[in-house]
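Hey, quick one: can you model this chain's 3D structure?
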Amino acid sequence: MRRVVYSMGVSLDGYIAGPDGSFAWTSPDEELFRFVTDQTRELAAYVMGRRLYETMLYWETADENPSLGFETLEWASVWRDLPKVVFSTTLSAVVGNARLATGSLVEEIERLRAESADGDIAIGGAALAGQAARLGLIDEYRPRVLPVLVGGGIPFYPQSEHQVDLELVESRCFGSQTVYLRYRVAR
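Sure thing. Here's the predicted structure for all 187 residues.
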């Protein structure tokens, strides 16, 4: 069965964006960018909320910018082709290889898990990932921990009223001192 994975750049103190909403400190170096591109290439679908969808819209047409390097153009191609499911109560339409969710988060995840395509299902956006975590839908947490303390902001780890036990499956340290951790939810 397909896994649901939650992976984003996160500060050492646990935030995906700082107090001012900035996440410029998450910009990857070339090595990490290749790693993220390769991981994204292995996905079957990406489930996200409206804010992340709107942030990522840039990548739908980024390949039209001739000044971008090969790695950036490759990422844009991988992202553009990836099927996406967007949860929003305010959008009436989405563009590219995306569709608006028609069911609940549980229904959409079950629908995606039932499809025959290879690859995992990624979930992005702190609020939507928090909802998925509370519903027990996340199978793996994959933070890329950056060597920075931002002091507050939007937390990566969803607030929960119950303990979630995890098993370390993989770890990797990059030249940028970013550490990738892959934890499986112990069930």
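One thing worth noting: The chain has a mean pLDDT of 93.
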